[in-house]
Design brief:
The complex is a heterodimer of chains A (about 160) and B (about 375).
Chain A lengths: L28 H29 L4 H4 L22 H18 L13 H11 L32
Chain B lengths: L2 H23 L6 H32 L2 H14 L2 H7 L1 H4 L2 H4 L5 H6 L1 H5 L6 H24 L4 H22 L12 H19 L13 H36 L2 H8 L9 H22 L3 H4 L2 H23 L14 H24 L11 H7 L1
Helix pairs in contact in B: 1-17, 2-3, 2-9, 2-10, 2-11, 2-16, 2-17, 3-11, 3-17, 9-10, 10-11, 11-12, 11-16, 12-14, 14-16
Classes of the chains: A mainly alpha (about 160), B mainly alpha (about 375).
Chain lengths: ~160, ~375
């Protein structure tokens, strides 16, 4: 394998003496050849990946469906957060759990000890309570009764989706 | 005796002593994992120099320039050691169980991830892939050897080298951890290999045959300046890709990827401090110090200071190889357990490799061969 190459002599290019670096015998074309090869390789890889995806991802193998026997241990975070030792996904899971619990229970006590209902829940409660259908004793607070032929300017609470 | 001859004698002695100490470790109460880990570390140090040299030769064939002509004998000789490195890979095949969790049935059965990857990560396919890598690399080396100026071959050759080294990095290094996965890993390895090969070539500059006729002083300064600039470019590229990998994993903060950096001391606990010190040394001497030094033209244009910088880079890269190999496979725990067998394996393998390398260097062309169609080349070849 170690083929001895012929011994040759040559000087460093004269272009080296003027600018402080050697600019002789430098091929810019090589960069373009490389870029062309790189682009072709990328195209081939993308096509091959696409083909594999189409052929292999569809059927789920039995081992893909297998679940770990025990839950994975909690990871140690890389990001230093000594005052809040929790990962972002743990924070999100806790937030989601808290919101679900609040919605289930209705109105947990807020900081001012008053009721604290989410607006959607409050509207549902109001509609289901039947308060809006009762005749109002005080005419000043009675809801506006729209004539039958008048079209509403804004969607009413009852028509909300 | 010439300087190369003296180094060759020294490398034979060190190689034999290291190899003997390494073999002795098999008969002593030393864990198999430590023995094969040490071998993998020493092996990757040598392989990186050979593959990085091949990459440099292909880069030079593409771009041209005096710098490549000057370092060609060293890079060429290093590249020609690839067949020897293919043979030296064989002992690693006996240490799969010690090195890789996917080769241990008890771990395979208990890991969903390993079961999922079993179709790819199994012993038979591992051997086939390793053989394929060496066939491709030796084939590329032969192409570069026989057709050194074939630009059309070197462009795809560089891409093939990047792709095969990425896969080899996954097989030989990344798969030592069950969960870790990084798409930048192969690129970090290839850039590190090229950097180390460039540093080796610069270190060997005084040993390479002198030019006849000697270049004029401004031309010599320009050459040293170019070599320094190339080293600086590679240092920056290495730091960029290594930091990019860390940044992406740090931001992702996932169970799968964190473990690899936690093993290297980023999370605290265990022997984190020791690994942090090693990491700090690598960061300091493979980036900050050479980056600062290579910014100055005076340092680049003085042979001694450029050589000193290249030595720093070479040693720091050796430390990086250890940092890549040793902490893996500890399930996210930082365990610092250097062993004398690490040094023995490194000495043995490096001694054997250096002997072969210097043998090749002696048979390499006394001076670089310029491109035949170039201006100066045409003058030479008539």
């Amino acid at each position: 394998m170690a083929k001895t190459m012929p011994q040759v002599r040559y000087p460093i290019g004269p272009a080296a003496e003027t600018p402080g670096y050697d600019g002789s015998r430098v091929h810019v074309g090589g960069v373009f050849i490389f870029l062309l090869c790189f682009a072709i390789t990328m195209a081939v890889i993308f096509l091959a990946t696409w083909g594999f995806e189409r052929r292999l991802v569809g059927p789920v193998r039995p081992q893909d469906r297998a679940q770990p026997k025990e839950p994975l241990p909690l990871p140690q975070p890389l990001q230093p957060s000594p005052g809040h030792p929790a990962l972002p996904w743990q924070d999100l899971a806790a937030l989601r759990q808290r919101q679900q619990r609040e919605l289930r229970l209705g109105a947990p006590a807020a900081a001012d000890h008053g009721p604290h209902l989410p607006i959607d829940k409050a509207i549902d409660e109001l509609l289901n309570s039947g308060v809006l259908n009762r005749p109002w004793k005080n005419p000043a607070t009675q809801p506006y009764m729209r004539p039958a032929d008048e079209k509403p300017a804004l969607p009413s609470v009852e028509n909300r989706t | 005796m010439t300087a190369i001859g003296k180094i060759q004698t020294g490398s034979i002695v060190v190689g034999i002593a290291g190899a003997a100490a390494f073999v002795a470790a098999f008969f002593l109460p030393v864990q198999r994992e430590l023995i094969f880990r040490a071998y993998l570390f020493g092996y990757l140090c040598c392989l990186g120099l050979a593959l990085g040299s091949m990459c440099l030769l292909m880069l030079h064939a593409l771009t041209g320039g005096e710098w490549g002509d000057r370092i060609r004998p060293a890079a060429h000789a290093a590249m020609l050691t690839l067949p020897l490195l293919a043979l030296l890979f064989i002992p690693l095949c006996f240490g799969l169980r010690a090195l890789y969790p996917w080769a241990r049935p008890e771990e395979l059965a208990g890991s969903h991830t390993l079961l999922h990857r079993q179709a790819y990560l199994n012993a038979t396919f591992f051997y086939i892939r390793a053989a394929a890598y060496f066939v491709i690399w030796i084939g590329l080396a032969l192409l570069v050897h026989w057709r050194p100026w074939a630009r059309a071959l070197c462009a795809p050759g560089l891409i093939i080298y990047l792709m095969t080294m990425t896969h080899a990095g996954i097989d030989w290094l990344m798969s030592r951890d069950i969960e870790f996965y990084s798409t930048a890993f192969g690129f970090v390895l290839t850039v590190g290999q090229t950097l180390s090969a460039m540093a080796l070539a610069v270190v060997l500059l005084p040993l390479l045959p002198k030019r006849r006729p000697a270049p004029s002083p401004p031309a010599k300064l320009a050459l040293l300046n170019d070599l320094g600039n190339l080293l600086l470019t590679m240092v920056i590229l290495w730091a960029y890709v290594a930091f990019m990998q860390l940044l992406v994993i740090w931001m992702g903060n996932t169970t799968e990827d964190n473990g690899w950096y936690l093993e290297r001391g980023l999370g605290g606990g265990g022997d984190s401090l020791a690994w942090r010190i090693v990491g700090g040394i690598i960061l300091l001497f493979e980036f900050f110090v050479p980056f600062y030094l290579l910014l100055f033209r005076k340092i680049k244009q003085r042979s001694r200071s450029l050589l000193a910088t290249a030595w720093i880079l070479l040693l720091a890269h050796g430390a990086e190889e250890y940092w890549l190999v040793a902490p893996s496979g500890n399930d996210g725990a930082a365990r610092f357990d250097p062993h004398w067998v690490d040094l023995a394996a490194l000495a043995g393998l490096l001694g054997i490799w250096l002997t072969a390398f210097l043998l090749m260097l002696g048979r390499a062309p006394a001076e670089a061969m310029p491109e035949p169609q170039s201006e100066t080349g045409a003058a030479v070849h008539g």
